Amino acid sequence: MGRWEPNARGRLEQAALELYAERGYEQTTVAEIAKRAGLTERTYFRHFADKREVLFAGAAALRELLVTTVADAPADATPIDAVAAALDAVAGMIGGRREGARQRQSVIVANAELRERELIKLAALSAGLAEALRGRGVGEPAASLAAEAGIAVFKVSFEQWIGEARDRELPEIIRQLLDELKAVTAGR
Amino acid sequence: MGRWEPNARGRLEQAALELYAERGYEQTTVAEIAKRAGLTERTYFRHFADKREVLFAGAAALRELLVTTVADAPADATPIDAVAAALDAVAGMIGGRREGARQRQSVIVANAELRERELIKLAALSAGLAEALRGRGVGEPAASLAAEAGIAVFKVSFEQWIGEARDRELPEIIRQLLDELKAVTAGR
Q1: Which of the listed residues A67, A75, A87, A101 has the most CB atoms within 10 Å of its CB?
Q2: pTM of the model as a whole
Q3: Domains of chain A
Q4: pLDDT category, B4, cuts 50, 70, 90?
């Protein structure tokens, strides 16, 4: 490993987002990202496998947080309560970074390969949630349905959050949409 | 166009599924699929753009059926009722072909590129459903949530249907899982 670079990872993520937004994802090279961050390409590749992965580097931490929150939910929590707690934890993690989330989303929606990668990430989060629920003794199909419902609420909430001009916070939107999903499935 | 080939499309689909199952998707060529179907490569490419698309040729019809069923649902149907009717129509369309669905699924789960394509197809079905619901005057986020919930139920039901040894039919599984989702989101 080279010398210690203070917050190299965060600086590279920030530089990549800026360049992707300014020039487009296809037109940006790893060399340019490293330069903007004041680091070397070698440092970049110590942190990320390629120029795509810098956009998805948070996925593992997201999954980990979902899974541990479900596992740590009180023994008498229902499956949807455990999922709600997990979404609340995730919202707390990413909720303070609306501008970065907006930038990232605009890069992703503009590129088919990135949209695919985002769908794969969401599917992996759903699979992780379902597995954590089964680990609590929730049977099938309840575990898979609760997990899919949770990711659906997360996805729609996230889009509302980055789309709207108002200042509702992500945890609040998620709680509201969980209630809305309950009303919708109940046939209201 | 060449001379009329009776059910060329269906024969090519069947031949592709057989060869993908026997030899693997990567190892199969379009020339081999055409030969197995007793047709020419030229005929193949009149029906499908490449060897991947033969596995996803039904997606457009599926989307069309979902969308028109939602549009044609009674005026007083709730969003989830309209979604349920659409899933029932789709189940009727594919429900008689469990063996083919199993073969197709085993090809898809074995290949990362095909799994991605399947996720994209499901996302497109959800987007189509949401749009059809908005066309009925359903607002957001109810339209997106009902659509995502419907596709989640479809996905989990489909996996149960092709996975289980018993002879429950797909429409029955879907109806049961819609009830189960209702119970799960209500906190039971």
Answers
A1: A87
A2: 0.89
A3: 8-54 (1.10.10.60), 58-185 (1.10.357.10)
A4: low
